[in-house]
Amino acid sequence: MRYRAAPTANPSRAREGGPVSEPSAPKRAVAVRPTARDEEQTQSHYAAEAKIYPRAVSGLFAHWRWGMVWLTQIVFYGLPWLTWNGRQAVLFDLAERRFFVFGLVLWPQDLIYLAALLVISALALFFFTAVAGRLWCGYACPQTVYTEIFLWIERRIEGDRIARMKLDAAPWSAAKIARKGGKHAAWIAVALVTGFSFVGYFTPIRVLVDELVTLSFGPWESFWILFYGLATYGNAGFLREQICKYMCPYARFQSTLIDADSLVIAYDARRGDPRGSRPRKAEPRRLGLGDCVDCTLCVQVCPTGIDIRDGLQNECIGCAACIDVCDDVMGRMGYAPGLIRYATERGLDERHSRPQMLARALRPRVLVYGAALAAAGAAFVLGLAWRSPFAVDVLRDRGALARVTDDGAVENVYRLQFINRTERPQRYRIVAGGLDGLVVDQGVETVAAAAGIGSATVRLRLAADDAARLAAGPHRIAFEVEALDSSAAPVRERSTFIVPR
To answer: What pTM was estimated for this model as a whole?
Structure first.
């Protein structure tokens, strides 16, 4: 996939597709004193970027984008308020090291599932990027979602693009202070509600509400509400496109995921060029013009301020705002829509129809990503479905590894820890095997509370005659623990039994 080319020795020839001569290398080094223009251009690299004022746009893709805004925010703000079995449905209880996700109770030992989710997320990103570019960035990324929300507030208070530009250029006055203050007050309110909801995933949100009423937040709760709120306020209100252009690594490696058959937002230069304004009823071909009226609206609605007519660029987040506004202009001019559209590089070059472009989507790269994604997803679901309702950890008593009793028997002491992954109490029966004559001297049964951790001290005993037949040193054994209140298969944990010298 080709991105915007660097400046060439003959830009006009490059645009026309003609040969471009490469500058010849100098035969010897020549000291050149920098001119004032050179110094000005050098300084311009460090100048502050001009503020971007995205214009409001409506259309099919804008509706899809706002649909994703509503969906993601309903999920984000709504999940902490759902209840499940008398508790918060989704709660990451760091103090108790328990994580509740609807009917699942996860412990730190279940970190493998988090790793699997990260792998699935990465594979999904690879898959959808190979198929259709930066869909995540354009529709579901939190930076995009909150920027859309903050821009909507800004437009409601300060007006659309031209009005905001005039307001920023105007001298300070009571009206300007009122508009700016109202906008920032609304931004801060949204940011604090966002931070509050975020902390509500770690502290029960109803407890947070009570603490809010009495102003009794804990220090860490206060810190994270303010921190997350400040991050939302700064990223969506001020940094905006700079996060996407300079801080997000996705723009840098997307070129390795996109190829000539990936659907991306593209300008049809064959149809649109040469560009130029014309009367609405004029025939563009008679004027020697293409369909592009050079209105620059595609640049004005772009949240990153790029001109999509220059080709695919790293800064393009795939929001499709330029498609909506261009289709609107084409409709007013009486031209066919799709001058800017989702298309593939190969499709534009070879004039493929949309069905032909979509048919090439099932190419080896996409099939590999899709197969890996399906396999990882299936393994994740099956792993959760087959997960035992409890786990057992066996720890040896470090104070006394083994001892010989008065009757010559050998005893080893162990500490068994039971992690109950269900939300009801469970009873466990403990059996040991692996050596002839090995018996559990005490602690045959124990109990773990609902979604809790239980423990038991277990003493294994080997009669003197049985111990005499064994060599001194460690011998492999296994504990088998059965949940008496569950039909789950018993859990086996290996350990060692030490016969002293």
So the answer is: 0.83
